[in-house]
User: Fold this.
Amino acid sequence: MRITQESMTRRLLADLQASRERVDRAQREMMSQKQLLKPSDDPVGAQRAILTRGELDANVQHQANVTQARGWMETTDDAYSEIIDILHRARALTVQGANDATGPAGRENIALEIDQLVSAVKQAANTSFGGVYVLAGTETTTRPYDTETIPPDDTYAGNAGIVAREIGPGISIQINSVPDDGSATPLLGSGGGDGGLIDTLRNISAHLRGGAAADADALRSTDLAALERNLDGLNTARANVGATVNRLDAADARLGATELAATKLLSEIEDVDFAEAALNLSSQQSVYDAALRTGARIIQPSLLDFLR
Assistant:
């Protein structure tokens, strides 16, 4: 078969183009620090990279959920801590009011302070985090308790709905606590004889103003017992909050480890070894330069070159 000058030129140009493409590839790897530039480079690796990136994106959302849930729970804990402090003050006042040495005027003053403590309890229950009320169930835009109406309305305006956050694939955790869940022993309740803290404080205020022997007996017995029961309920609720925060901390540590492992895997799939990439670029550039020089010697001068 006769090899013409034109066929040699076409062959040389094709080889130079292929060499130049390898140089371009090596340059892009160096600039991007990625060895997986398009799916066709490694279809299996590209699929693994997509799955890993999806895992990382979900992990970021779960970490954000954990952070938001921790803030919610810490706000709840602060509210319960404040309410427990109020309860301790109410117990001290109840003991003082139950003392026979305290006269009617003194009991009236104590009753006035108890009324203020009820308002303080409701204000603490109206605590919000990020613009939502943490003790309102799923009615997060509604204040749980009214603090403005005269005479006071102690009705709980929230509900017993569960607010949950997903902290892992298929793992959700309840982050809210409900002051009045409709049970026989609500935490704060809605008054009206439900036995919650607000109802207990209203009873204490009434007994302080009653003046009868039965009222004094109630202060020393049933009222103090009710306060102790309320305190036990609040301490239990606060312990549950603490346990939830511990679980969130554990989830945060697990998500951090997952993020580290996924990031390392993605790097192994996509990233180049810098030293190897630099060596490859230098090698491909040398090959391309050598091909240019060799091609210039192989291609014979044309007729025009002889006629000059």
Observations:
- The mean pLDDT is 85.
